[in-house]
Write a structure and sequence with these properties.
The structure holds 2 protein chains of 2 kinds. Chain A contains 13 helices and no strands. Chain A is mainly α. Chain A folds into 2 domains: about 40 residues; about 230 residues, MetI-like (MetI-like fold). In chain A, helix 4 runs parallel beside helix 8, helix 4 packs antiparallel against helix 10 and helix 8 crosses helix 10. The longest helix of chain A has about 40 residues. Chain A starts with a helix and ends in a 7-residue tail after the last helix. By secondary structure, chain B is mostly helical. Chain B has 2 domains: about 60 residues; about 210 residues, MetI-like (MetI-like fold, Orthogonal Bundle). In chain B, about 75% of the residues lie in helices and about 0% in strands. In chain B, helix 1 crosses helix 14, helix 4 packs across helix 8 and helix 14 crosses helix 15. Classes of the chains: A mainly alpha, B mainly alpha. Chains A and B meet through helix 1, helix 2, helix 4, helix 5 and helix 6 of A and helix 1, helix 4, helix 5, helix 6 and helix 9 of B. Chain B: Belongs to the binding-protein-dependent transport system permease family. Chain B: It is a multi-pass membrane protein. Chain B: Its main location: membrane. Chain B: This is Sugar ABC transporter permease. Chain B: Keywords: Cell membrane, Membrane, Transmembrane, Transmembrane helix, Transport.
């Protein structure tokens, strides 16, 4: 700020003569400066984002494999192969299942926690910190902790179940439960993130609306929620749903380290398929085709999110 | 029931539910610390207990540090995250200033490109960027970890929005003083934007400290591993035999960010949820 202060002082003392003649001249210089300032960012954008994005689409029409001396354009062959591949459909179905479980779970819990925290005064920031902790902590490290908690023999979860007289389970090793176990970890991690977004939304609801509702006879927590909170939170909720869906679509870390998509493909997800095809078998072309499918889903959700994000909130 | 009694009851319910939820949230952390503090024999027993009979945290930490060069991995994490953030600022701030305060042909197109690029998920460009780094011959190096992230379109967008709010008088005054446009970025704009840069910094450092996908793809050498990669590697090597040291290693890996978070919660929450606003 001290720079700004001296600069302002300088302006006060500067003679007010600078000739108009130089203005146009200076503006041209300024526009050159603008190009120089924006050039590095522009070049890197082309090199690391727009180029690769065009590249992944182009690659999906080739048979390129990493290290191959040449490649040829094969049209839709990759897509044809993909749509005929059982693993791709399993992968897509698992991804959608994961999204369909984690999104409602993490959104509902995030909303519930935010409402509960906001409804009273005590321990507010302590609760917020605790629920946000899983968002902060390195997911890979925590995934390994979860793996041990879900250990069939010595894990905490089965230990508690046994203590309650129930049967333990091989959560991550059983094809019937592997994906759902990953969903639980996903919900555990995403709830705090959604909670913070909801808290921000709750704080921004004008207090006079609650007063007005009370004057109109809305008594009790439930009618206040139904008449004021929920309608006012509508746009935020749609927004949180879209963000959660985008993040869930990108699920990879827990899958790669805990199940490798198994057992027998029961937890195979899109990004993991892309990873194995593109970076383990180095079938860049086919991996690119899988990426394009993933991209289509995520872009659809993103467009939806921006549309919702820009929608005005009506206070009427 | 009197209103007071109802208030009290509600407050009690609120705390009971929130505390129960908080316990679930904290369980993995508690169990991690508990397991890291137990000797082998207590870990592999069907008798569940939270407090170890034998306190073995120091032994487990010593084994973890002996088996894996954890200091090295933490240092790698620090080098990679700070280089990424430094370069992001270096690239994004001038561009953000030009977009916010200068008039030039193609400005709107450039801004539209920035907004478009925000929509691209990082996994989507992985294969071509990998091929590019392969062509450049920089795979398996710090450069491979840092280069793709030197451009943060989100950072440009964020800083541009912030710079829009800086009064033009301030910039004109600086020009009168003979400060160049480049100088204005660093000597006038940056000092006014410290809160926004801090929030963006937290967002960037947390994202790249925790990133697993990209290091997994571009790295081969053990000595370059970032913390998440190192802990996954540790786990694969020990394959379910050495949970005490493994949990100790996990603790070490998450410690820097968790401690920083506990000291500056408000700033961290603000920084990380920036993605929500974009």
């Amino acid at each position: 700020m001290s720079d700004a202060a001296t600069a302002l002082q300088g302006m006060a003392m500067a003679p007010r003569v600078p000739a108009r003649v130089f203005a146009g001249f200076r503006r041209a210089g300024r526009s050159q400066a603008a190009y120089a300032l924006a050039a590095p960012a522009f070049m890197l954008m082309l090199l690391m984002l727009i180029g690769p994005l065009a590249g992944v689409i182009a690659l999906s029409f080739t048979d390129y494999q990493l290290g191959a001396p040449a490649f040829s354009w094969i049209g839709l062959s990759n897509y044809r192969e993909m749509f005929a591949d059982r693993v791709f459909w399993i992968s897509l179905k698992n991804t959608l299942t994961y999204v369909a479980i984690v999104v409602p779970g993490a959104v509902a819990l995030g909303l519930g926690v935010a409402l509960l925290i906001q409804s009273g005064a005590g321990l507010k920031s302590w609760y917020r910190t605790v629920y946000f902790l899983p968002v902060m902590a390195t997911l890979i490290a925590m995934a390994i902790v979860w793996e041990f908690m879900l250990h069939p023999q010595f894990g905490l979860v089965n230990g508690l179940l046994r203590a309650a007289g129930l049967q333990g389970h091989s959560w991550l090793q059983d094809r019937g439960t592997a994906l759902y176990s990953l969903c639980v970890i996903g919900i555990w991690q995403a709830t705090g993130f959604n909670m913070v977004l909801f808290l921000a939304g709750l704080v921004s609801i004008p207090k006079h609306l609650y007063d007005a509702a009370e004057i109109d006879g809305a008594e009790g927590a439930w009618s206040r929620f139904r008449l004021v909170t929920w309608p006012m939170l509508g746009p935020v909720t749609l927004f949180v749903v879209a963000i959660s869906a985008i993040r869930s679509f990108q699920v990879f870390d827990t899958v790669q380290v805990l199940t490798k998509g198994g057992p027998s493909k029961s937890s195979e997800v899109l990004i993991y398929t892309m990873y194995t095809e593109g970076f383990e078998f180095f079938r860049s072309g086919y991996g690119a085709a899988v990426t394009v499918v993933f991209l289509a889903f995520v872009l659809l959700l993103t467009v939806l999110k921006s549309a919702l994000g820009n929608r005005e909130v009506h206070y009427a | 029931m009197t209103p007071q009694a109802r208030m009290l009851l509600w407050s009690a319910i609120r705390h009971i539910v929130l505390l129960a939820g908080a316990l679930v949230m904290l369980t993995p952390f508690i169990w991690m610390v508990s397991t890291a503090s137990k000797p082998q024999t207590e870990i592999f027993s069907s008798d569940l207990h939270l407090i170890p009979y034998h306190f073995a945290l120091w032994d487990n930490l010593r084994i973890a540090f002996a088996k894996a060069d954890l200091w090295r991995y933490l240092l790698n994490g620090l080098i990679v995250t700070t280089s990424i953030f430094g370069l992001q600022v270096l690239v994004a701030l001038p561009a953000a200033y030009a977009l916010a305060k200068l008039r030039f042909l193609g400005r709107d197109v450039l801004f539209a490109l920035v907004v478009f690029c925000i929509l691209i998920p990082p996994q989507a460009t992985a294969i071509p960027v990998f091929l590019l780094l392969h062509k450049l011959g920089v795979l398996d190096s710090y450069a491979a970890l840092v280069l793709p992230f030197t451009i943060s379109v989100f950072g440009i967008f964020l800083m541009r929005q912030f710079f829009k709010t800086v009064p033009d008088d301030l910039i004109d005054a600086a020009r009168m003083d003979g400060i160049s446009e480049f100088g204005i970025v660093w000597r006038v704009m940056l000092p006014t934007a410290i809160p926004a840069v801090t929030a963006f910094g937290i967002f960037s450092v947390v994202a790249h400290w925790n990133d697993y996908f990209w290091p997994l793809i571009v790295l081969n050498s053990e000595h370059l591993q970032t913390p998440p990669l190192a802990v996954a590697h540790f786990r694969n090597n020990e394959a379910g035999t050495n949970y005490g040291p493994l949990m100790a290693a996990a603790m070490v890996i998450i410690a820097p960010l968790v401690i920083a978070f506990l000291f500056a919660q408000r700033r961290f929450i603000e920084g990380i949820t920036l993605t929500g606003i974009k």
